[in-house]
From TrEMBL, chain A:
Organismal lineage: Bacteria, Pseudomonadati, Pseudomonadota, Alphaproteobacteria, Hyphomicrobiales
UniProt cross-references to InterPro entries, sorted A to Z: CysT_permease, MetI-like, MetI-like_sf, Sulph_transpt2
UniProt xrefs under Pfam families: BPD_transp_1 (PF00528)
Gene3D superfamilies: MetI-like (1.10.3720.10)
GO MF entry, a single one: ABC-type sulfate transporter activity
Localization per record: Cell membrane
Subunit structure: The complex is composed of two ATP-binding proteins (CysA), two transmembrane proteins (CysT and CysW) and a solute-binding protein (CysP).
Name of the featured protein: Sulfate transport system permease protein CysT
Function: Part of the ABC transporter complex (TC 3.A.1.6.1) involved in sulfate/thiosulfate import.
Source species of the chain: Mesorhizobium mediterraneum
Any single GO CC term annotated in Swiss-Prot or TrEMBL for this entry: plasma membrane
Signal sequence interval, chain numbering: none
Record membrane topology: Multi-pass membrane protein
CDD domains in UniProt: TM_PBP2
UniProtKB/TrEMBL annotation, chain B:
Name of the protein in its database record: Sulfate ABC transporter ATP-binding protein
Cross-referenced NCBIfam families: 3a0106s01
Family note: Belongs to the ABC transporter superfamily.
Claim: Iron-sulfur is one of the keywords in the record: no
InterPro entries in the cross-refs: AAA+_ATPase, ABC_SmlMolc_Importer, ABC_transporter-like_ATP-bd, ABC_transporter-like_CS, Mo/tungstate-bd_C_term_dom, P-loop_NTPase, Sulph_transpt1, TOBE-like
UniProt signal peptide: none
Gene Ontology CC terms, in alphabetical order: ATP-binding cassette (ABC) transporter complex
SMART domains named among the record's database cross-references: AAA (SM00382)
Keywords: ATP-binding, Cell membrane, Membrane, Nucleotide-binding, Sulfate transport, Translocase, Transport
Example of a GO MF term: ATP binding
SUPFAM superfamilies: MOP-like, P-loop containing nucleoside triphosphate hydrolases
Domain of life (superkingdom): Bacteria
């Protein structure tokens, strides 16, 4: 914690004796400006040219609202599912030694490496009404492909490694003694996990959720194959942007993009604040 | 509660960590398990706790066979060297944890748990720190919280694994005295593991000296120090010097000279003579004594430690002299141990 006297007001944290602070900070700022800030401000600039009334009209257009709802809703559900199952996968990889563990460990990263379109096509083939899994689910009245459920499944696939890879290293650092102490104090296995282990993992799980969620909101390649892309029903916001671009309606495209940007930023900011708060408490 | 360890053997992947260990712990006793690393002292402690299962043998709490019970049912308080506090819980929540996880009618009300926690905090002299998180405490304070947490469940036996090992010397001495006070006040049967003999001898009612998976000797600090029953205990507890000797005609010989010690009880033949470096008398006339050339002389705190080379084999032994003793200036010193012990050569 910096405890500068209140009178001095805000100032740079005292850099360490090792030189390079000015150089690296300058480089970071220039780099971030070039890579992130300039393109994004271009986006806001373009949508600002639209004028408030037009912008509001596009923002409240039912197709836009539905697309945004589907994008954020499916990404949220997928990230939540990944939190549960990604944590279990990480647990199995960290805690147990079984033949093929390294292969499973490597498999977790596949969604990172695979072109997303390939994933989308593969999932669609599986879950289409005449596909392997889709034909099994169809008699139960469950339709996966060409519905929001299909989008969720694609996003679960894409987001899994984000949760596993953020939770895994923290889990590896859990002290066995903490569990042993809980057991001697009379806690059963379930109580130990729920009250001792999971709260300790919470910051990592929240980070994994944030990453999977952010990735899910922006995902395009895998989703458009399985979603069916029915306006109002299974059309995601990134696709709507592309549609507007193809219509040469650049203003509308940038407006939707700006709304997505604002929503994502707010959600990530909230998640970050939650993390800062928990880190302060638990040190 | 009484704890009885009966013929316990423990193997880790066929490698024996404990051979046939038996130990009786009286109710309310403070017992130290002392030994070098790898002697099996921590394994024995973990077996009593139920954190390991014995390969053979049984452990009784009172009349009950505890080896059949799970860790949770044994009701032991365990304190680790590195505290193992729950980082995300306040001090009060840490202490109350063992009560909170109880089921049904045995669980006290939230208010009662809070009251117990602050009572225990008073006992460990940390009153008013209920709301702190472990990260905000010093090492010594954390270990006190860990002990309070272990005592909160009214354990049948309190087990401490190197409780002061991670603390600096001054805090360690202070906590040692404090643990003794707490033990006297609460009367919990307590077993602690240490490799620090000073800690064991000062703190414990009885000390269990262990080596290579076996108990070498059990006794009070006086018994262990004054009448060690094996070469290992003699060498491990306190300072000691040893010399290879021979027993013949009821006399102790070094090479071809008797050294003025009579050993009528000892068996004939090769043996090792043990004595304490400070428990020797210097003699002027060497008429049956140990004599050697001074090889080195060091000042150690209040005394001077002199290293002597004895006989043609140039065996080295250490003796302690008062700082201003003139013998330290001489090149040759003769002495006779006041108290000593012979063990047959292995």
């Amino acid at each position: 914690m910096t405890t500068a006297p209140a009178k001095a007001g805000w100032r740079f944290r005292q850099p360490s004796v090792i030189p390079g602070f000015g150089l690296t900070l300058g480089f970071s700022l220039a780099y971030l400006t070039l890579i992130i800030l300039i393109p994004l401000s271009g986006l806001i600039w373009r949508s600002a040219a639209l004028g408030w009334a037009d912008f509001w009209a596009i923002a409240t257009d039912r197709r836009t609202v539905n697309a945004l709802e589907i994008s954020f809703g499916t990404a949220f559900i997928a990230a939540a599912v990944n939190v549960v199952f990604g944590t279990i996968v990480a647990w199995v990889l960290v805690r147990y030694n079984f033949p093929g563990r390294r292969i499973v460990d490597a498999m977790v990263d596949l969604p990172f490496a695979l072109p997303t379109a390939v994933a989308g096509i593969a999932l669609t083939t599986l879950y289409a009404p005449n596909g392997w899994l889709g034909s099994l689910l169809a008699p139960l009245g469950i339709k996966v492909a060409y519905t929001p459920l299909g989008i969720v499944i694609a996003l679960i696939f894409i987001g899994l490694p984000f949760v596993v890879r953020t939770v895994q290293p923290i889990m590896e650092e859990i002290d066995k003694e903490v569990e042993e102490v809980a057991a001697t104090l009379g806690a059963n296995r379930f109580q130990t996990i729920a009250r001792v282990l999971l709260p300790g993992l919470a910051p990592a799980i929240v980070t994994g959720f944030a990453l999977a969620f952010a990735r899910g909101v922006g995902e395009y390649g895998s989703v458009i194959f399985i979603a069916g892309n029915l306006p109002y029903k299974s059309e995601i916001a990134p696709l709507l942007i592309v549609i507007r671009l193809e219509e040469y309606n650049y203003a509308a495209a940038t407006a939707i993009a700006a709304i997505m940007l604002a929503l994502s930023f707010v959600m990530l900011l909230v998640i970050n604040l939650v993390q800062t708060w928990s880190r302060k408490r638990y040190g | 509660m009484e704890v009885r360890v009966a013929n316990v053997r423990k193997e880790f992947e066929r490698f024996p960590a404990l051979h046939d260990v038996s130990l009786d712990i009286k109710s309310g006793e403070l017992i130290a398990l002392l030994g070098p690393s790898g002697s099996g002292k921590t394994t024995l402690l973990r077996l009593i706790a139920g954190l390991e299962r014995p390969t053979r043998g049984k452990i009784f709490f009172g009349e009950e066979d505890a080896s059949q019970k799970s860790i949770q049912e044994r009701n032991v308080g365990f304190v680790f060297q590195h505290y193992a506090l729950f980082r995300h819980m306040t001090v009060a929540d840490n202490i109350g944890f063992g009560l909170k996880v109880r089921h049904g009618p045995t669980r006290p009300s939230a208010q009662e748990i809070r009251r117990r926690a602050s009572e225990l905090l008073d006992l460990v002299q940390l009153s008013g720190l209920e709301k702190r998180y472990p990260a905000q405490l010093s090492g010594g304070q954390r270990q006190r919280v860990a002990l309070a947490r272990a005592m909160a469940i009214e354990p049948a036996v309190l087990l401490l694994d190197e409780p002061f090992g991670a603390l600096d010397a001054q805090v360690r001495r202070e906590l040692r005295r404090w643990l003794r006070d707490i033990h006297d006040a609460t009367g919990h049967t307590t077993v602690f593991v240490t490799h620090d003999q000073e800690e064991a001898l000062e703190l414990a009612d009885r000390v269990v000296v262990m080596s290579q998976g076996r108990i070498e000797q059990v006794g009070t600090a006086d018994e262990i120090y004054d009448t060690p029953n094996s070469p290992f205990v003699y060498g491990f507890i306190g300072e000691s010097s040893s010399l290879p000797v021979k027993v013949e005609d009821g006399q102790v010989w070094i090479a071809d000279r008797p050294i003025g010690l009579s050993a009528t009880q000892a068996p004939q033949g090769e043996a090792t003579l043990f004595f304490r470096p400070h428990d020797v008398e210097l003699v002027d006339e060497c008429n049956g004594c140990i004599a050697g050339t001074v090889a080195a002389s060091r000042r150690v705190a209040g005394t001077r430690r002199v290293e002597l080379e004895i006989g043609g084999e140039r065996q080295r032994v250490e003796i302690e002299l008062p700082v201003d003793h003139p013998a330290a200036q001489k090149s040759r010193v003769a002495f006779r141990p006041r108290r000593w012990k012979l063990f047959p050569a292995a």
